[in-house]
Amino acid sequence: MNEVDWTTLPAPDDDGAADHLEGLALADLPLPSTDGADVRLAVEPGITILFAYPMTSQPGTDLPEGWDAIPGARGCTPQTCAYRDRMSDLQAAGAARVYGLSTQSTAWQLEAKERLGLPYPLLSDAHLHLAEAMSLPVMEVAGETLLRRLTMIVEDGMIRRVHYPVFPPDADAGRVVDWLRAREG
C-alpha cells in the first residue's frame, strides 16, 4: 500500500450530518457480514467499534472519476488497514469487536477482507437500510449512494461517541484507542 500525502487531498468539512447520532440506540437491523452471518449491531454486548467508509477499490477496477477531488473519499484502504494494525490496542482498551461498514456488496467486501488480511468482518448496507434508519451521512458518486466516513463507538447498542468527519482516515483507529483509554482513566 502506498503512503498517502493527506495534505494534497481536500479535507471534509463538518457539515453537522452526524450530530444527531451520539446518544442514540442503533437500529436493530441485520447486516450481511463477510463472516457469512447477519450481524445485529443493536444487540451486541460491550463495546463495538463501527467505522463506515465509502468504498474499497478492487485490483483491476477503476475508482469513480474524480475520486481524489471528493473531500473525504480517498483513504478507505489506509483506514481499514489501520484498524487491522491497531486491533490488539483496541481490544486492550476495551473494544469487544470491530466492524467496517460500506454500501458495497458482501462479495466485494470479502475480496477486500481477504486481500488485506483483516481480522474483523466487514458489513454490507448495500440496500441502505441502516443508513436510512439512522440518517447516516451519505454522498452520491457516479450514480451510487455511498456512506461518508464516520466512526461510532457503540456500547450495548447505544452510540457513545461519534467521530465525524474522519480525516486523515489512517489516524482514525488511533483516535478511537485514545478515546477508549481516556475513558478508562
TrEMBL record:
Q: Key word Oxidoreductase present in the record? A: yes
- Domain Redoxin per the UniProt entry, residue ranges: 29-173
- Please name the Gene3D superfamilies in this protein's record: Glutaredoxin
InterPro entries assigned = Peroxiredoxin_BCP/PrxQ, Redoxin, Thioredoxin-like_sf
User: Which sequence ranges are marked TM in the entry?
Assistant: none
The alphabetical list of record keywords is: Antioxidant, Disulfide bond, Oxidoreductase, Peroxidase, Redox-active center
Annotated Gene Ontology cellular components are: cytoplasm
What is any one GO biological process for this UniProt entry?
cellular response to oxidative stress
Keyword Hydrolase attached: no
Alphabetically, the GO molecular function entries are:
thioredoxin peroxidase activity
Q: What is this protein called?
A: Peroxiredoxin
